[in-house]
Amino acid sequence: MTSTKSKADIGLVAHLLRRAGFGATPNELDSFIELDYDEIVDYLINFDLPDYIPQDFISRFHKDQSDLRIADGARAHWIYRMVMTKTPLREKMCLFWHRIFATAATKLIQNRVVVNQIDMFREKGFGRFDDLLLGLSRDPAMIMWLDNQDNHGSNINENYGREILELFSMGVGNYSEDDIKDTARAFTGWSVVNPEYMSIKMRNNTVRPYGYISWQYEYDANDHDNGVKTILGETGNWNGEDAIRIICEQKATAEYIARHMYHFFVADEVPVPQWPHQSPRDAEAISLMVESYFQNEHSIKSMMETMLKAEFFKEESARYARIKSPAEMVVGTMRLAGPIELPSDETYYAQAVCSNMGQALLGPPSVEGWQGGNEWINTGTYVERVNFATKILDNSDKEGVRNIIDRIKSINNTGNITSDDLVSGCLEVLGPINVSTMTEKRLKEFASKYGELTWSDEGSFNQFDKAALSVIQLIVCTQEYQTA
Q: Within 33-139, where are the H helices?
């Protein structure tokens, strides 16, 4: 692999691709290597075309990934999309919003409605926050998840009114109990209906796994509270759209979203419940993103561009400052191993491992979602991480693994390589990954048993593959690989 850029520049690009995606495959790094950093950011944040998903082929071999009602199939299908996407930032944003707007199929009984919500994130998750919040408020999964079908003009249910302020936009301490009540009143009449049973209104929390699956948003004007409401200091005969406008105009909303973006894309923050009591890790970074929010009509894309091009994002201290979520680690490893060839059981294995590591896709533990950070790691989950990564990268016949091994060879064109150079080559091609001096020393001690390696004949070729696979598998067990 040749380049006109310095190793430091390549390291910065690799850092960008870990955060704005799931890590760089060697081929992806090649495709960006001659571009300036800002040009790479511009490419990553501009995605207009949908990813090609071979739905007919998936339906033929994996019926449950077409039906999408059962958890294993629905989760495996999203894993497939994240691994195979040509627009990794779009899928990363879906994961970001799923973590904040946490909606679980466990209460909704079937998973298709949550899959539909993820589709909505793909469509609206990179535009104006106002439009995303409106899409969320009309989303059948969210309506049923937070009981807004039981929110009537004559008898309000405060669940959604509370959570849209507390968890979805502003955070604790920026609103009153009266704001919650009047926001709930603004969303009365926002409900769902099943088009296959138009005469049956979903008014009594009716949830059936197979009959009522095609929920659609419906506004019932007769069920709306038309009284005067005061929300965050503004008084009027407000509807849900008005409530969203008022919420999105608040500085607290911009600060809350900016802090979530920093937490997810830059460096681990303290858990969200501590935010009202502890200042942001980098207040200047938050202010910069808030300024972008208001200067660009509440655009999430503009906030992302500001963040990714900012010096605080590029700093050495920001690299490896986040623990990868289970989904990030799983998807990044699968992308390294190579494209998924259907039919495949690997996506089912991957979604199960995500669940075992504490991140069941489409099934967050509560409306608070996943806190992340150190909560991702304990003795049991780390073992799951190591076992998964080593298993996925254990076959030199996989396209991605074969590419990694061949690139290691190409670093030294003499036809032979020392064990120390093998370790250095693996670290370079897999990332490049910066490891501590102690980690590098232990890796080289392990590799020394292979001595000097060559690939001049079939026997030495196979021995080199064995040695390279062993070093690769040990690297993905390291602490550095588990951080982004």
A: 37-45, 55-61, 64-67, 71-84, 88-100, 105-108, 112-124, 129-137
Number of H helices, E strands in the chain: 25, 6
Whether this model's pTM surpasses 0.85: yes
> Could you give the angle at which helices 7-19 and 37-45 cross, rounded to 10 degrees?
20
Q: Which amino acid type is present at position 323? A: I
- CA dihedral of 193, 197, 200, 206, whole degrees rounded to 10: -70
Q: What is the dihedral of CA 166, 169, 174, 179, to 10 degrees?
A: -70
Question: What confidence tens digit (pLDDT) does each residue in 387-419 have?
Answer: 999 999 999 999 999 999 999 998 877 788 999
**Structure tokens belonging to residue 144:** 């049923």
Where do we find the tokens 């995606």?
Answer: 21
- Considering only CA atoms, which of 314, 317, 364, 316 is closest in space to residue 37? 314
Q: Which of 297, 190, 288, 167 is nearest to 245 (CA)?
A: 297
Question: Can you tell me the distance from the alpha carbon of 2 to that of 5, in angstroms, rounded to the nearest whole number?
Answer: 9
Helical pair 37-45 and 300-309, crossing angle rounded to 10 deg: 160
Q: Which two tokens stand for residue 32?
A: 């960006």
Q: Is the pLDDT of residue 88 over 70?
A: yes
Q: Is the bond into 432 cis (omega within 30 degrees of 0)?
A: yes
Mean pLDDT calculated for residue range 312-329: 95
Per-residue model confidence (pLDDT) at position 204: 44
